[in-house]
Amino acid sequence: MSILIIGLLLGGTYALMAMGLQLQYGVARIMNLANGEILVAAAFGTFWFFTAYQLSPFISLLIVVPLAFAVNWAIYHWLMLPLVRRAKNQGQLEVDSILATFGISFIFIGILLAVFGGDYLNYSYLARPFYILGEAYGLNRIAAFLMSAAICIGLYLWLHRTRTGLTLRAVSVSPSAAGLVSINVERASALAFALGGAVTAAGGAMLSMFLTFDASLGVLFTLKGLVIIIMGGVRDIRGAIVASFILGLAETAVAILVDPGLTLAAAYVLFLIILLVRPEGLFGRRST
Amino acid sequence: MTDKSPRTRGFLQRSMQAMRDGLVLSASDKRHLVLGTIGFALAALLPFVSDGYALSVGISVAMYAVLATSWMLFSGPTNYISLGTAAFFGIGMYVVAGGIDLLPFSALVVIAALVGGVFAAIVGLATLRIAGVYFVIFTLGMAELIRQITVWGQAKMGSQAGLYVLVGMDDSTLYWLLIALAAIVFLVGWWIGRSRLGFALRIIGNDEVVAVHSGINTARAKVVLFVISSVFASITGALVAPRYSYVEPTLAFSPFISFQVVIMALLGGVHRLWGPLVGVIPFTLMWEVINASYPRLSTLLLGVCFLLIVYFIPHGVVGLIESLRGGYRKRGGPLRDLLQNTLRSRKSNNA
Q1: Over the Cα atoms of chain A, what is R_g?
Q2: How far is CA B10 from CA A11, B13, B15, B16, B220, in A?
């Protein structure tokens, strides 16, 4: 029972990270291998605001998220756009963007190492027990889950109820067709990329409330995020949310029943199952 | 091979023919062979003329030359970027570290090659049959995955995290072993380049749809070459294990190895067999300096170097030189262009 609840709470925060990656890969067509580093940087930022200025993580969100938006917009504008323009086809762009974001991820790690050093960091916020069905759970996990759920729902409604959201969804279906109906594809992609980074950063701020971080962890989150969107489908938000919960549950089960050091193996097992059984994703349609 | 149906026999005959074709040497092939032999012979003289420091830099150069060239064998022609060299390197190292009390070193190197090869085959069979991104994602966290499993397995078996590898091997021997391995990688790469397999891979890299339509078993070609490339990485890890004498998971599966291999290969250029080597030598030397002068900033600088290469010399130094010398000559020939253009126009008609 506790596995179920902890897994769901964790999955809620993962959903945030996965939605960020979905915006970047699904709409902006950039496979961002530095996504996990954005998340870790946001976690470090939240840590820093908490220890240096006693700011609650929820208030830090108001600083970290716009900052991440600006940084990601800049990354897209100055680093990704030249690649998009130079690429002759989708495959070329994929190779170039994978290499470039791989390099960017090491720049982020380098900055974090230079500023914070290589230690594991964590802080204690809302570390009080909260009782659900007679069992105690950290209040910080529950608060992080509720905040993540609120952001996810907000983002979903924004994507489906506003005109800008519609624009992004159109680009996600087909950039060239979106261009034909006078959508500024480059601007929409930049917005999606920046927004994706901001949502991921929000996920990092929330995760920092109950996880321990060090500068090298980013690749784990990148991988988890990618496994989630492969499982759920690159353009399917509901799929990604379901997949986030599955990953959260699987990881928690492995951590509690086997060993907390094997959580990545849980992600890989899910990845392998998906690759072998349903490469098109949980709700995806098999392409012909 | 008990099955001697006409189809099998035909396949065997064709492969034999292909091998014989591969052994016919043109004048330029002979020149390359002679030049390569002279190069390796000169490189092998280093331990006689140098002190300990130059030799240890030489070992790093030789090690990365093997890793980067074998990386390029697969990722160069196919454009499938492998980010998991460290996983195979670490596997090799750990096979040696774990078995050194039980078996002789040479047997362990063979076992390391086998383990690395089997693991690569499994990864390849799972990921290379479908789109390329899955392979990239899979290799991204692979080193970390194996590291976690190793740590867990060691804890389960009650062994210590770090293992001692005490083999009486001096630096000169290690250097010669690595140079010999590099020579083998070059020979294998040269042979693949002229074989049907190499031709198939270049077509896959240019356009996978074209490759499938030309009747190439793309999955098999990719898996075979990924296995070859990974076996070399595993052997390298096994060979250098005694150099570290104390092996622990964080060292063996360090993501920086994967990163440096990719960066060096890209710096040199991945469309020529000797391309990665052109990147390995200056980069290793530069890296020695950077690591000694700015240890705190080394990761950051590594990332910056990487971006500079991706943006400003996408075809590597070799591509740069060749474009300066009158047009970057693409491999593949007119047949490929024809196929590609036909298919592309067909695709755009359908869309």
Answers
A1: 18
A2: 55, 5, 9, 10, 19
pTM here is 0.86
Residue A122 makes CB contacts below 8 A (sequence gap 6+) with: A47, A208, A211, A212, A213
Q: Is B140 close to A222, i.e. CB distance below 8 A? A: yes
The number of residues making up chain B comes to 351
Tokens 């990163």 label which residue? B259
Q: Which of B126, B141, B310 sits opposite A219 (nearest CB)?
A: B141
Cβ of B140 and A226 within 8 Å?
Answer: yes
DSSP label of A225: H
Output the CA–CA distances (angstroms, integers) from residue A192 to A101, B143, B145, in the order listed.
Answer: 16, 31, 31
- pLDDT by position in tens, chain B (length 351): 444 566 666 666 666 665 565 556 777 778 888 888 888 888 888 888 877 888 888 999 999 999 999 999 998 888 888 999 999 999 999 999 888 888 888 999 999 999 999 999 999 998 888 777 889 989 998 998 999 898 888 888 877 767 887 777 788 889 999 999 999 999 999 888 888 888 888 888 888 888 888 888 888 889 999 999 999 999 999 999 888 878 888 888 988 899 899 999 999 888 888 889 989 998 998 888 888 888 788 888 888 988 998 888 888 888 888 888 765 444 444 444 555 555 555 555 444
Sort out which chain A residues have CB atoms less than 8 A from B132's CB and list them: 91, 94
Angle at B251 between CA B245 and CA B252, to 5 degrees: 80
Residue position matching structure tokens 């049959």:
B129
- Other C-beta atoms lying within 10 Å of the C-beta of residue B296: 11
Rounded Cα distance, B52 and B62, in Å: 15
For the domain B35-350, what is the CATH code?
1.10.3470
- Rounded CA separation B235/B114 (Å): 9
Each domain of chain B, given as residue ranges in start order, spans 35-350
A220 touches B: beta carbon within 8 Å: yes
Fold for A2-277, please state it.
Answer: ABC transporter involved in vitamin B12 uptake, BtuC (1.10.3470)
Interface test with B, best of A79, A99, A112, A120 (most B CBs within 10 A): A99
Domain boundaries, chain A: 2-277
Complex ipTM over 0.90: no
| Contact A132/B at CB under 8 A | no
Rounded Cα gap, residues B281 and B290, in angstroms = 14
List, in order, residues 6 or more apart from A8 with CB less than 8 Å away: A145, A245, A248, A249
Please check whether residue A47 is in contact with residue A276, taking contact to mean a CB–CB distance below 8 angstroms.
no
Q: Does A279 touch chain B (CB under 8 A)?
A: yes
Residue numbers in B near A98 (CB within 8 A): 81, 136
Q: Are A111 and A97 in contact (CB under 8 A)?
A: no
Question: Which tokens go with A86?
Answer: 């130079």
- CB < 8 Å to A233, chain B: none
> Tokens 């690759």, residue?
A275
Q: Looking at the complex, does the CB of residue B341 fall below 8 Å from at least one CB of chain A?
A: no
Q: Which two tokens stand for residue A97?
A: 């963007």
8 Å CB contact of A262 and B148: yes
List the structure tokens of B217. Answer: 């078993």
B74, B85, B119, B148: best to mutate for the A interface, most A CBs within 10 A: B148
